[in-house]
Design a protein that fits this description.
The complex is a heterodimer. Chain A is of the alpha/beta class. Chain A is 31% helix and 18% strand. Chain A has twelve helices and 17 strands. In chain A, α2 packs parallel to α4. The longest helix of chain A has 22 residues. By secondary structure, chain B is an alpha+beta fold. Chain B has a six-stranded antiparallel beta sheet, sandwiched between helices. In chain B, β3 and β4 form a beta hairpin. At the A-B interface, α3, α6 and α7 of A face α3, α7, α9, α11 and α13 of B.
């Protein structure tokens, strides 16, 4: 049809000319119904963040049927939705200590974005960020989703558990989502929520400090030339705004120069930020965005910053610390800084002790040669059966947790938990009963690095 | 060119000709990539877009024409709290862009905030600090260097940031601003001009010399400047293959990246990569299989060996090898048979990969078809 005649036809239909009766565009549809269903699988992973993705892929690649429940819209958690797209440190003292599936994903994301890896052969000294790998977070989110699907993982976005119960050696997980109400039965359950959310629903004890580390909303500022700014004047105005109550001192660590220099990268602090429930996470998100908006308005009143703008902002505030399980073994600060090699070690962890408070953070670096390890027992809640956690809610004291919580370590734990769950299914045992030799062999077959194995 | 500048140039040439020695007063140097005698100095002018009036970058070359080093004069004021001191020093870069050293003009010296001259130890510390390309100084502003209140407003706390507490590790005590200025000059716009000039001089011979450097930074720099910069030679390729092992991940990873599709036209190179694959750890196995995908064809021995290895490979690597076979249209019965063995794996993930490969290949062999059907039924 030629363009002129096509337009003529559209006009005729629009005005009702040429047809006697026009079908109504708007119709009454059947009312919305919640889809109820029951699913059966080998392993359920709750939480598609840093650790959960790796646990699910590992279990899938080991041949198990896996369902991954994620209450957000994409995978990756802190790395992607939280915008902390620098997933920790994989190399220590010139050697790779965290590898396997986590590293494979990082390596592929780096290659697909034409990025270059840092030189890991030279130790980072007192400045560990030099070994951080920067990722394209959104690319990473797509890549890990593809890897999950390749591993046969059944992804269930926008769902969250409402009930978790164990009976006759079977876990039942009830979830609710947008128009879904699902009951999933499985043999093994892995809680990768970072908050011990499923562990709590299952009735296991959780621990939490009176004061937790602040959260951070990641964003990017633009529209100014840092080098040309009068920083003394800006500092003075910033302090005046704090004194008058216009700005909150702790929002940006009392460091306006740092905010401008970093352009918003990992600089905000939201005190008490907690992602455990919808209410606490909503509060953390609102606090982060409010602080940013107020500060943006303030900055735009200052000479040289009149055109300051938000170039990008994450959808969620990233959270550092909430609840931890009371596990069969609690990793202590002493264990961590001395690099204790546990008999049941299943992965390494490597990061400075890194406790953020309202003043900022001063990382406490590990002594030369020290590489801490993670025992399987720290992933298993006391009095539990066929239940594990992976990620920051593992059993550890607060100082050890400040390092263990970092993404690379969570990836290592995720792979170990996925492998343990897969073997437990295969051998019809609990993860703790799985022969350690078999577990270590499976992890290393899939590229993971197990402490004590050369 | 004024007299002063000519004099400075002649001095620099004389000093450059004396090599990069730290045993002379006012000279602090690291090891260069090439320790050949200096033959001549060439001047290049750029708009560096920095605060200096001086727009000249000097390149020292050997008799053979290899660039040996670069230098530029840093003459500026170091100011804070409305007090200024003159900083006059020649900064040297290695041909790979890393910091090489600094040199003070005769009778010049560096001093601290209390006007005390640097001690020898402080000069050496400065030299070491300036060599750290990843120093946190790169992320600090000039104003963040000293942990003290930035200003005085009645009733308001002074600013003592956490960063400032740790700054002493990265500066010469009492000379924070001098360290900062020099560091930012070294890693500023001049560094890029340095590497641009070296890239223009790159040849297989020069790349080989840089690959043989004792400095890890130089080696990595050379590895990043092979593909697309110089025509591969058997010597370079041999060196790349030697770097591929489990001892140094970074060197190995860059060496794999530096192998070009042209190199992979050689059957022997493919076979050598296969031998590396057999010794490599998981991360590198994946990189090596991916590299083989860049080849214009897949060597028959490599194909057979990989097919034989399938039962021993991890699930993910099985997938990678099958993708490699698919890419090269591998469609022979022995390979199909090797893949069909995977249908019996107790790992259904591996079986599914094998089934997909065989389905996509349109296998018609009866025995294999039966195995495929049996696998489908078992799922």
């Amino acid at each position: 049809m030629k363009r002129r005649s096509a337009l003529a036809s559209i006009g005729a239909i629009s005005f009702g000319i040429g047809s006697k009766e026009v079908d109504p565009v708007e119709i009454v549809r059947e009312p919305y119904k919640v889809k109820k269903q029951s699913l059966k699988t080998d392993i359920v992973v709750v939480g598609g963040g840093t650790a959960g993705v790796i646990a699910a892929i590992q279990a899938g690649r080991a041949g198990r049927k896996v369902i991954l429940i994620e209450n957000g819209s994409q995978l990756g958690g802190t790395t992607t939705t939280g915008g902390v797209a620098f997933p920790g440190i994989f190399f220590a003292w010139g050697k790779q200590v965290i590898g396997g599936i986590g590293w494979e994903l990082v390596q592929e994301a780096v290659a697909l974005n034409d990025d270059t890896l840092p030189d890991f052969s030279i130790p980072h000294g007192k400045h560990h960020p030099r070994h951080q790998v920067r990722l394209n977070g959104q690319l990473y989110a797509m890549l890990i989703e593809e890897k999950c699907r390749e591993a046969g993982v059944n992804l269930r976005f926008y769902e969250t558990p409402t009930r978790v119960a164990f009976q006759s050696n079977t876990w039942t997980v009830e979830t609710v989502g947008k128009g879904t109400n699902t009951e999933i039965t499985c043999k093994q359950l892995i809680d990768c929520t970072g908050n011990g959310y499923a562990a709590h629903l299952a009735g296991y004890k959780l621990l939490r400090e009176a004061e937790t580390q602040p959260g951070t909303l990641q964003f990017q500022l633009g529209g100014y030339d840092f080098k040309s700014l009068d920083l003394k004047m800006i500092q003075a105005k910033y302090q005046q705004a704090i004194a008058s109550g216009q700005l909150v001192k702790s929002d940006f660590r009392n460091n306006i120069v740092g905010l401008l220099k970093s352009e918003g990268d990992n600089i905000q602090h939201i005190l008490g930020a907690d992602s455990t429930t919808s209410e606490t996470h909503s509060l953390a998100n609102v606090q982060g965005r409010t602080a940013l908006l107020n500060t943006l308005r303030f900055l735009r009143t200052l000479p040289g910053l009149e055109k300051t703008k938000i170039v990008d902002m994450q959808n969620e505030t990233g959270i550092r610390e909430t609840y931890r399980i009371d596990g069969l073994y609690k990793i202590t600060h002493e264990d961590y800084v001395t690099g204790k090699l546990f008999d049941d070690a299943v992965s390494y962890s490597y990061y400075p002790i890194d406790v953020h408070d309202e003043n900022g953070v001063v990382p406490d670096h590990l002594k030369e040669g020290v590489v801490p390890s993670v025992p399987l027992r720290a992933l298993i809640p006391k009095n539990s059966k066929n239940f594990m956690v992976a990620g920051r809610c593992l059993s550890s004291d607060r100082l050890a947790n400040s390092a263990l919580r970092v993404q690379a370590s969570c990836m290592g734990m995720g792979q170990a938990a996925g492998a343990a769950a897969a073997l437990a299914c295969k051998l019809d045992k609990t993860p703790l009963e799985v022969p350690l030799k078999d577990l270590r062999q499976l992890i290393t077959e899939h590229g993971g690095i197990v402490p004590g194995i050369v | 060119m004024n007299k002063c500048r000519i004099l400075f140039l002649l001095t620099l040439l004389a000093l450059a000709a004396s090599g990069f020695r730290s045993d002379q007063p006012g000279r602090y140097f690291l090891s260069p990539t090439l320790s050949l005698p200096a033959d001549h100095v060439q001047a290049f002018t750029f708009d560096f877009k920095d605060e200096l009036l001086d727009d000249t970058l000097f390149q020292t070359r050997s008799k053979e024409g290899f660039p040996l080093s670069y230098h530029r004069r840093l003459k500026t004021s170091v100011c804070f709290d409305d007090k200024c001191r003159l900083l006059d020093v020649a900064i040297y870069w290695n041909i790979t862009g890393r910091y090489l050293g600094f040199e003070l003009p005769q009778k010049e010296y560096l001093s601290k905030t209390d006007h005390e001259p640097f001690t020898t130890d402080e000069y050496q510390r400065l030299n070491a600090l300036l060599a750290d390309e990843q120093s946190p100084l790169g992320n600090m502003s000039y104003e963040e260097l000293v942990p003290r209140p930035y200003f005085t407003v009645k009733g308001i706390d002074g600013v003592t940031s956490a960063t400032a507490k740790s700054v002493l590790d990265y500066i010469v005590k009492g000379a924070a601003y001098t360290t900062y200025k020099m560091w930012h000059f070294i890693y500023g716009p001049t560094q890029e001009r340095v590497t641009e000039l070296t890239i223009k001089s790159l040849s297989p011979e020069l790349i080989m010399k840089i690959l043989e450097s004792g400095d890890a930074y130089d080696k990595l720099w050379a590895l990043n400047h092979i593909n697309g910069h110089v025509k591969p030679t058997p010597q370079i390729l041999g060196q790349l293959l030697r770097f591929i092992d489990n001892r140094n991940y970074s060197l190995s990873e860059r060496a794999i990246n530096a192998i070009s599709p042209t190199d992979l036209q050689s059957d022997s190179v493919q076979v050598l990569l296969l031998s590396k694959l057999n010794q490599a750890d998981y991360s590198q196995k994946k990189l090596l299989i991916k590299k083989l995908k860049e080849a214009p064809f897949l060597n028959a021995d490599v194909k057979t060996n990989l097919a034989d290895q399938l039962p021993k490979l991890s699930a993910e690597l099985v997938g990678d090898v099958l993708v490699l076979f698919q890419k090269f249209g591998v469609k022979d019965l022995p390979t199909y048979r090797a893949v069909s063995q995977l249908l019996r794996s107790e790992n259904r993930f591996i079986g599914s990969k094998a089934l997909k490969f065989l389905q996509d290949a349109g296998v018609t062999d009866e025995a294999i078809s039966r195995e495929m059907a049996a696998f489908r039924t078992s799922q």
